[in-house]
Amino acid sequence: MLLRCLLNIPSRATRHRPRGSGGKGTENRNMWSEQDEVRITRENNQKRKICTAAAKMKRLGRTCEERGVNEMESL
Q1: What is the pLDDT of residues 27-51, one digit of tens each?
Q2: What's the rounded Cα separation, in Å, for the pair 31 and 26?
Q3: Distance between CA atoms of 41 and 64, rounded to whole angstroms?
Q4: Three-state secondary-structure class, residue 68
Q5: What's the rounded Cα separation, in Å, for the pair 45 and 40?
Q6: The whole model's pTM is what?
Q7: Neighbouring C-beta atoms of residue 53, cutoff 10 Å
């Protein structure tokens, strides 16, 4: 029962929103400019870089704060 509940959540969440509209309604899809696409792609890439860097640091067992301190000491 719980499994069925968990499986239903994503489909219900995505059903009412048209795909590829950036979370806006369908009437806004035509106003969606290429510039916005580029900007959002860039922002997402930036976020992904930060996330992967953080994950890498975590995997090495060092936190960002420690790395910051080490970088300051090396200067």
Answers
A1: 555 565 777 778 888 888 887 887 7
A2: 10
A3: 25
A4: helix
A5: 8
A6: 0.29
A7: 12
